[in-house]
Write a structure and sequence with these properties.
Layout lengths: L2 E5 L17 E2 L2 E2 H11 L4 E6 L3 H8 L4 E4 L6 H8 L9 E6 L7 H13 L4 E7 L8 E4 L5 E5 L6 H4 L3 E10 H7 L17 H7 L4 E5 L12 H21 L3 E2 L5 E3 L4 E2 L4 E2 L3 E4 L3 E2 L4 E2 L3 E4 L2 E2 L4 E2 L2 E4 L2 E2 L4 E2 L3 E3 L3 E3 L4 E9 L1 E3 L4 E9 L1 E3 L4 E2 L4 E3 L9 E3 L4 E2 L4 E3 L2 E3 L4 E2 L4 E2 L8 E2 L11 H13 L1
Parallel strand pairs: 1-4, 1-6, 4-5, 7-11, 12-15, 13-16, 14-17, 15-18, 16-19, 17-20, 18-21, 19-22, 20-23, 21-24, 22-25, 23-26, 24-27, 25-27, 26-28, 27-29, 28-30, 30-33, 31-34, 32-35, 33-36, 34-37, 35-38, 37-39
Antiparallel strand pairs: 2-3, 6-10, 7-10, 8-9
This protein binds uridine-diphosphate-N-acetylglucosamine and calcium ion (CA).
The site of uridine-diphosphate-N-acetylglucosamine (UD1) has 29 residues, from helix 3 and strand 10.
Length: about 450
């Protein structure tokens, strides 16, 4: 079904940014990715992305699924389409042209435009919208019979045209043959000295071809992003869409205004999200969990029935029925089994923790393999780094580690072993043994009393 042309070569001067506009992120994804996703959802298999500004960066970000057309100089949206067309092999058919800076556009709306375009047999169908404040957009000027006369850019518009509130959304369907035939007739004779794609409307009209505008049901969807305020509003819009769909699927979200969920996050039924929760990237959360308040989870997987309170997680995996926090930090490669307890001020990195193990307070566990039913006492630290290399700590099933112990890696604690509190373990402890590695206690009878007496005598 036809081709897509996505215009993404502009710099986005009004963003005041080193990043090209279309690579600014909303809801954890690049702006232009939403456009591509909407285009794909209409069944368009082949899209040409017009790149120019930071072309390499845009291509690297979007990957190999698309054809790229390089627009070396950004001479306008019409010029961008001219650049894209040689990539289309078919002679006949239709193309959907979308600006890369309208991330709120939905697939259903593109589908409606496409259907309308085919039904009306138009040479060009423009998606328009009625805006309360049309400032900045190209205005739609209709003929008496309601077909289109032209599109006038804001900067070129006369006072009576500026008063029109039907605007060009920057989304169009074109008959491919007609587009090819007339695109090179566009002239850069306007306020900005650019080749405007919008001039195709009057050009095609002058050839006696049918040009129509189809009004979008929801103007919010069609908003283009040109500056950071619009970026933030669009981000909020996408977030609220995501939150509504999660609530429809049975997730409780206590305060949607204080909950931040990226578009690709998946959450199971009857999970409750408390305020201050950020769920980012490819995070997946099971059913019946309580997440938050004040929790930040990125690219992590959490099972069912977990409680996560005031925690930060990055690329971590958590089984079922785990209890995490408050104030826990799971770093990349942290893998918890089921029913694991990770309490306050515990950091875990690149370590697997077996079922029913407990690390309740003030610990660092890094580069460790921890079996099931292990108890890691308060203040235990894996000393995994010698300043140059990292080493492994192996703690087998059922080990009990007394509080404030240091495990100097590489080291192994065998099944069911005990470590006395305050130990610095540097050698293997065999299964079933007790290790105590600390200075032996020596008591001096009456020493403190004598010392205090000496001090009192000195003062007199
Ligand atoms: C454009 C339309 C305007 C419409 C608005 C909708 C034109 C002349 N104007 O204006 O009628 O109301 O979108 O949001 O088309 N781009 C290129 N190469 C270029 C220039 C632009 O690829 O040489 C890309 C940009 O990266 C951007 C898109 O085209 O993604 C739109 O460009 P922008 O400068 O934002 O156009 P507007 O002024 O918003
Ligand atoms: Ca724009």
């Amino acid at each position: 079904m036809g081709y897509g042309i996505i215009l993404a070569a502009g710099k986005g001067t009004r963003m005041k940014s080193r990043l090209p506009k279309v690579l600014h992120k909303l809801g954890g994804k690049y702006m232009v990715q939403y456009v591509l996703q909407a285009v794909e959802s209409v069944g368009i298999k082949e899209s040409i992305v017009v790149v120019g500004n930071e072309a390499r960066m845009v291509q690297d970000a979007l990957g190999e699924g698309y054809l790229y057309a390089l627009q070396e100089e950004q001479l306008g949206t019409g010029h961008a389409v001219m650049t894209a067309l040689p990539n289309i092999k078919d002679e006949e058919g239709h193309v959907l042209v979308v600006c890369g800076d309208t991330p709120l556009i939905k697939g259903v709306t593109l589908q409606k435009l496409w259907n309308y375009h085919l039904k009306t047999k138009s040479a060009c169908s423009v998606l328009s919208a009625l805006l309360p404040d049309p400032t900045g957009y190209g205005r739609i000027v209709r003929k008496e019979d309601d077909t289109l006369l032209k599109i006038v850019e804001h900067k070129d518009a006369l006072a009576e045209e500026l008063a029109l509130n039907e605007i060009n959304t920057g989304i169009y369907c074109f008959d491919l043959k007609v587009l090819r035939e007339f695109i090179h007739d566009i002239k850069p004779e306007n306020a900005q000295g650019e080749y405007y794609l919008t001039d195709m409307v009057s050009l095609l009209g002058a050839q006696g071809l049918v040009v129509n505008a189809f009004i979008a049901d929801d103007f919010e969807e069609t908003q283009g992003i040109n500056n950071r305020s619009q970026l933030s509003l669009a981000d909020k819009n996408l977030r609220m869409r995501k939150i509504s769909s999660l609530m429809e699927e049975g997730v409780t979200i206590i305060d949607p205004d204080a909950t931040y969920i990226d578009q690709d996050v998946i959450i199971g039924q009857d999970t409750v999200l408390e305020p201050g929760t950020f769920l980012r990237g490819k995070t997946v959360i099971g059913s019946d969990c309580i997440i938050g308040p004040d929790t930040d989870i990125t690219d992590s997987v959490i099972g069912n029935g977990c409680k996560v309170n005031r925690a930060v997680m990055v690329e971590a995996q958590v089984g079922d029925l785990c209890n995490i926090g408050p104030f826990a930090y799971l770093r990349p490669g942290a893998e918890l089994g089921n029913q694991v307890k990770v309490g306050d001020f515990v950091e875990i990195k690149k370590s697997r923790i077996g079922d029913q193990s407990k690390i309740p307070h003030l610990s660092y566990v890094g580069d460790a393999q921890v079996g099931g039913k292990v108890n890691i006492g308060c203040g235990t630290i894996t000393c995994n780094y010698d300043g140059k290399k990292k080493f492994q700590t192996i703690i087998e099933e059922g080990v009990f580690i007394g509080s404030n112990s240091n495990l100097v890696a590489p080291v192994k604690l065998g099944e069911g072993a005990y470590v006395g509190a305050g130990s610095t373990i540097t050698k293997e402890v065999l299964a079933g043994d007790l290790a105590i590695a600390r200075g032996r206690q020596v008591n001096f009878a009456g020493w403190a009393i004598k010392k205090r007496n000496d001090w009192e005598n000195e003062q007199e």
